Amino acid sequence: MERTWKPTTAGILCIIAGTISVIDCIVVVVFGSIIGAFFGFEVVWGWSTFAIPLIISGIIAIVGGIYALRRKAWGLALAGSICALIGPGAILGLLAIIFVSLGKHEFK
């Protein structure tokens, strides 16, 4: 079986998109809380409602990217690519979905 660049590229894109999503959500929550405390209003439920699903999808994207790099568990690699589609790295997630799909035959 020939190894191509497609799953490797998809894995890297998933890891980058997931990392961007997690860091972005943490920054928004921290600075939102600081700014909210400075101006005298608290938006804890609003930030956590927004951030927790994006952090979870970012973590799934990172795990899926690792599986894509190892070329194991195509379904998990695809799920990670789909989760990478959610958040600020959406274009990276779209490219990851395409590359994981094109490299399906390389997975165990």
Short key terms for the protein model shown above:
0% strand, single chain, 108 residues
Report on this model:
This protein has 108 residues and is an all-alpha fold. It has one domain. The chain contains 4 helices and no strands. α1 packs antiparallel against α2 and α1 (6-39) runs antiparallel to α4 (90-102). The model has no long low-confidence stretch (mean pLDDT 88).
What's the tally of helices? 4
Strand content: under 5%
Order of helices and strands: HHHH
Please state the oligomeric state of the protein chains shown. single chain
Main sheet attributes: strand count, strand direction, barrel closure: none
Strand-pairing-aware structural class: mainly alpha
The whole-number mean of residue pLDDT values reads 88
What's the count of strands?
0
Helix content: over 70%
Overall 3D geometry? elongated
Ranges where pLDDT stays below 50 over 5 or more residues in a row are none
Euclidean distance between termini CA atoms: 11 Å
Number of domains: 1
Give the radius of gyration. 16 Å
Outline of this structure?
By secondary structure, the protein is mainly α. The protein is 79% helix and 0% strand. It has helices at 6-39, 44-70, 74-84, 90-102.
